[in-house]
Amino acid sequence: MAKTVYLNNYAGLAFGYEVDTTVVFAVYLMTPGDPNAEPPIPPEIIGVKVYPASMANIEVNQLLNVGGAGDMTVSGTGSDGGGDYFTYSPLAIPPPGASIRTPWNPSGQLLVTRDNNSVTLTYYMPAEHDLYFGTQKTADSGSITATLDGAPLGSFDLANPTTILAAVLLKAKAAPGVHTVVIQALIAPPDTFVYFHKFELLEHNAETGGEYLYLGPIGTLDDSLNNFLGDWSTVSGYGWTTTVDSSVFFYPQLDTGGQVKVRLQKTPDSAIVAVFANGQFRQNLDLYADPAAPLLEVTVLDHGAGDPAGSYEIELRHTGTKNGASSGYFLYFRSAVVVYSRTDAQALTLAADYLKQVAAIRGDGALLDAWDSSIINFDANALYSSMGLLAAYDYGIRNPESGLASQSYLDAVRNFLNWFAGMQISDPGNSFNDGAWNIGYEVNPAPPPVYRPALGPYAAQGISEIKWVDAVQCLPAFVLWWYWTLSNDAATKNDLLPKFQKAADGFLANNYDPETGFYFSSWQNKTGPTIFLYHDAIRRTSAGGALLELHNDGEEGFFTYSGSWSSYAPQGAIHSDEHYTLSSQSYVQFSLALASGDRVKWVTQTAWDAGIAEILVSTDGSNFSLSTTVDGYSQALLLQQEFLIYTAPAAGTYWFRTRHNGTINAAGNIAPGWQRLESRFTAGQTDVALGLTALWLLTREARYATLAARLIRRFPEKFWGATDGRWLISRDGPAPGAENTFWYPMGHGYTIFGQKQSRFFQPASRFSQGLQALEPYQDAEGGFLPPGYVEPEYIFSAFYCLGENQLAAPTNPTQYDLAKAYLKSGQYLLSLGGQQAGGIPFSKRYQYLYTNITGFACLALAGTLNPIAEQLQFSESRLVMPQ
Fold it and tell me: Which end of the chain, N or C, is less surrounded by CB atoms within 10 Å?
C-alpha cells in the first residue's frame, strides 16, 4: 500500500512497561485502632498493601494497573517483615500472581502512558518508505526515543502549546525489507503523558505516467499512491485539509520531454500551499479565488524547462497562511499527473533492455522473474519473457532504423533455453519424472545445488512439489522454434530439441484428458491432509444493496488475526492478496458499526480443499455466539465468492469472527499424495497448441500437427462462455468440466495470438468478439477493469493489444491506441547493468516488475503477429498420443 497503517490495536504490537512484575501476596492496610480509648476504637481498613516480586521503579503517586484490582495510584511504599510493599486506597485485593504494570490506557482512539513504557512493531515493506509515529501532542506531553533495527533514530519532543494529532517522522527513506521499530516514552516532571495512535509507513511508489487520484482503488486516502500526512478528509472529487504542516507527497518519474503537474481547486476559503521538490522549496501557490475557479492544473516539474530527468519526491505542504481575502484555510487536492513522451519503439527498447539486463544478472542463463527476485520461470515467467525478447528482435528486423535487432536479445534467449534444459529431470524408465520441470526454481541460499525447485505461494499450503505444468512443459518448443527461425542457430536447435520434445511428450502422456480432448493444468504433491480457509475481504452494504464499506484482508488495523495465518497473492483476488489458514480454530476478527438492516458480506476463495467456516457474532466484543456457517467447498477454484453472513437486526456495533472449524464438505479433496489439478485452463490450451505446432515444424512428425489441430478445432465451442459472451478462464473438475466464468483477460488476447493462424479455429468471429467483450471495461486512461478486480493491471492492456495485433484492423482503433498508451504510461524506469531500462509493473498500486508482464508488453508494443505461417496438417489416426 502507498500508506500502511498499524493502529494501536494491531495484534502484532508488543508493549513494554516501566514496571512489569507480579503480586506475591496482598493484605488490607489497617489503622492500629486504640483498645484503651473510651469507647475503644477498632482497627479500620483504609487501603491495600501489596507485596510485589520486585519494587523496581515503583514510586508514590504512580499509576499502576494491578491485575484483579484495576488501575491504582500508589499512596505509599515501605518495608516490613513481609518484605517491600506499596499501598493504595481502594479496597480491592489482587490475587497472588496477578500482573502489576504501568499501563497503556485507552483515551478515545489513543493509548496513553504516564510512565516510561515502550511499544515495538516488526513489519515488512517491499519498497523504500518513510516511517512515522502517530501521536497526540499536548502542552504536558513528554518525549520519545526511537530505534530501527537497534540503530538509534534520535529523541523527539512531543510537547505542543495546543492539543493536535501529529505524525512524527522517525526515519525517511528506510530501505525495503523486514524492520523492527521500538518507541520508548521519556516522561520527566513537569511532563505527564505520551500518546500513541499509530505507526504509518509511507511507501515511495513511483508515479510513471497518467493521473494519480487522491483516492486509491478501494476508495480511501490511505490506498492512494499519493501519501497524505497529517489531518486529511475527503469531499467529492478532492482530499482536503485545513491543518498547518499537513502534506501530500508523491514520487514521480520525470522522463525526457515530460512534465509533472498537480490538480487543485481554488476557492474563496483556500490557503497558501508550499511546493517542495526533493526537500527543496520551489514555490508558494495562493489557492484563493472568488468565485471558485475550475480545476487548477499547476506544472511543478518540466524537463523542457530545465528540470533533469529522474525520480523525484514532490511535497505540497499547508503553510498555515492565506490570502488576506480568503475566509478559510482549505487545501483541496485532486491528483498528480505525470506526462511522458515516448514512442512505441522507445518504449519497446526500454522494455526489451529490462528483460535483457535481468537475464544477465545471474550470469549463467537463469532469467529471474524480476530484477529483485530470486525466483526463475515460475509458471513460465521466463518463457513469456523470452517471447518478448524475440518479439523485440523481430521488430528490429522489420524496422531496421529502430536498432532493435540486437544479438544480445537472441543471446539472452539462447542462454536461458540452455540453462532451462539443464534443469530438466532425467529419470529414464519413470514416465512420471523423466522430462519434467518444476513449476519454478529459485536461487538456493545454501548451495549446492545452486538452484532448487520453488513453490512460491504454494509452499505453505501443504504442497511439496508441482510439475507437468502446461506452459512450462510446452512453450519451450515454441520459443526454441521461434529463436531458430530468427537466428538460424541450428546447433542450439539440434542440441535442445530432444529435451524439449521429451518434455512435451511427457506432458501429453500425463495431462491429456481423453474425455474432453483437452489438457489438465498440472500435478501437485500434497504432503498431508489440508483444509484451507481463505479470507479476502468484508463488504458492508445497505439493506438496499448499496456498498457502504469495503475492507481488504490486508487492513491490519481493521482485522485481527488469531492463530496461524499466512498471506499470498492470487491474481484476481481483491487487491490481488488473501490471508489463509490451515489451522482449525484460527479466526479473523473485526467490528462494524451497523444500521438496522445493514448486511455484512464475506468475500473468500472457494476450492476443492476449502473447508467450513463458522461465523460468530458478539454485541460486546467479548461474548461470541455462532450465527451461521459457510461451506467453502467448490469443484473449481473460485475467487471473490461473496457470502451474506449477517443482517443487523438493530443499529449498533457488532463484532465478528470468521473461524476455521476443522471440517470440510464430504466431497472435499484432502488426501495426500500426487494429485492432478483438474483444471483445463483456457490460456494453458493455447500454450499447448503453440508447443505442439512448433514441434511439428521442428520435427515434421504428423502426430504433433494432428494433436494441435484437434485441440484448436474443439476449443471455440468448449471454452466460449455462451451465457456471458466471452472466454472462460477454465473448465474444472470431471468431464466435461464446470465452466469457470471468472473474468480473466489473458484468454481474450492470447487465444488469438496462439490460434488465429489455424484454419481449424471456427468460427473466426470469436477472435474479435472476445476482444469486444473486454472493451466495455476500458477506462478513460486505457486500462481495463473487468469485474472482480480492484484496479486495472497493465498486462490486461498488453493482452488486448496483442490480440488486436493479429487482426487485419483493430476492432476499435481509439480503444486500441488508448490501451497501448496506458501500457507505455506504466513503464517504470530504472538503471540495470549500467543501462537505462523500463519494466512494466503489475499495476499503478503494485509496482512489481515481473518479467512476464514486460514480455507481453514487448509482444504488444512490437505489433507482433504469430510467426507461425504454415497451416497444420490433420490426420484421423488415433495413434498420435505417446505410447
Answer: C
Residues 641 and 694 in one domain: no
pLDDT band of residue 269 (cuts 50, 70, 90) is: very high
State how far the alpha carbon of 596 is from the alpha carbons of 84, 328, 546, 616, 853, in Å: 56, 38, 14, 19, 46
Whether residues 409 and 468 share a domain: the answer is yes
* Residues 568-591: b if buried by 16+ CB within 10 A, e if exposed: bebebbbbbbbbbbbeeebbbbbe
Work out the average pLDDT over 639-649: 96
Tell whether the model's pLDDT for residue 872 goes beyond 90: no
**Does the residue 785 lie in any domain?**
yes
Asked if 653 and 744 sit in the same domain, the reply is no
Q: Is 667 exposed, middle or buried (0-12, 13-18, 19+ CB in 10 A)?
A: exposed
Q: Are 672 and 718 in contact (CB under 8 A)?
A: no
| Euclidean distance between CA atoms 697 and 480, whole angstroms | 11
Verify that 162 and 220 share a domain, yes or no.
no
C-alpha atoms less than 13 angstroms from C-alpha of 624 in its C-beta half-sphere: 18
Burial class (CB in 10 A: 0-12, 13-18, 19+), 776: exposed
- CATH code for the domain in which residue 634 is found: 2.60.120
Q: Helix or strand or coil: residue 190?
A: coil
Q: Both 655 and 542 in a single domain?
A: yes
- Residue-wise over 388-422: b if at least 16 C-beta within 10 A, else e? bbbbbbbbbeebeebebbbeebbbbbbbbbebbbe
Give strand pairing partners of 633: 607
Q: Which helix (H) or strand (E) holds 713?
A: helix 702-719
Q: Hey, what's the cell of 496?
A: 535442445
Helix (H/G/I), strand (E/B), else coil: 622: coil
Q: How many CB atoms lie within 10 A of CB 794?
A: 25
**3-class secondary structure for 723-767?**
CCCEECCEEECCCCCEEECCCCCHHHHHHHHHHCCCCCCCCCHHH
**Residue 883 domain-assigned (yes or no):** no
CATH number of the domain residue 714 falls in: 1.50.10.20
3-class state of residue 511 by DSSP: helix
Identify which of 473, 467, 481 has the alpha carbon closest to the alpha carbon of residue 433: 467
Which three three-digit cell numbers place residue 870?
504454415
Phi, psi of 710 (to 5 degrees): -60, -45
Could you say which of 320, 339, 358 is where a domain stops? 339
For 3-45, the pLDDT digits (tens) are 788 888 787 899 999 999 999 999 999 998 888 888 889 999 9
Q: Which domain holds residue 7?
A: 3-11+107-203
Q: How many CA atoms lie within 13 A of 320 on its CB side?
A: 5
Number of domains in the chain: 5
Q: Do 615 and 646 meet the contact criterion of CB atoms below 8 Å apart?
A: yes
244 and 291 assigned to the same domain: yes
Amino acid 809 reads: A
| SS3 annotation, 305-366 | HCCCCEECCEEEEECCCCCCCCCCCEEEEEEEEEECCCCHHHHHHHHHHHHHHHHHCCCCCC
Within 10 Å of residue 219's Cβ, how many Cβ atoms? 13
Contact call for residues 358 and 368 (beta carbons, < 8 A): yes
Q: Are 248 and 229 in contact (CB under 8 A)?
A: yes
Asked if residues 502 and 511 have their Cβ atoms less than 8 Å apart, the reply is no
Q: What is the end-to-end Cα distance of the chain in Å, rounded?
A: 52
If asked whether residues 685 and 814 sit together in one domain, one would say: yes
| Amino acid (1-letter code) at residue 767 | F
Please tell me whether residues 694 and 581 are part of one structural domain. Answer: no
* Interatomic CA distance for residues 767 and 771, integer angstroms: 7
Tens of pLDDT, residue by residue over 385-428, are 999 999 999 999 999 999 999 999 999 999 999 999 999 999 99
pTM for the full predicted model = 0.82
What is the Cα gyration radius of the chain?
32
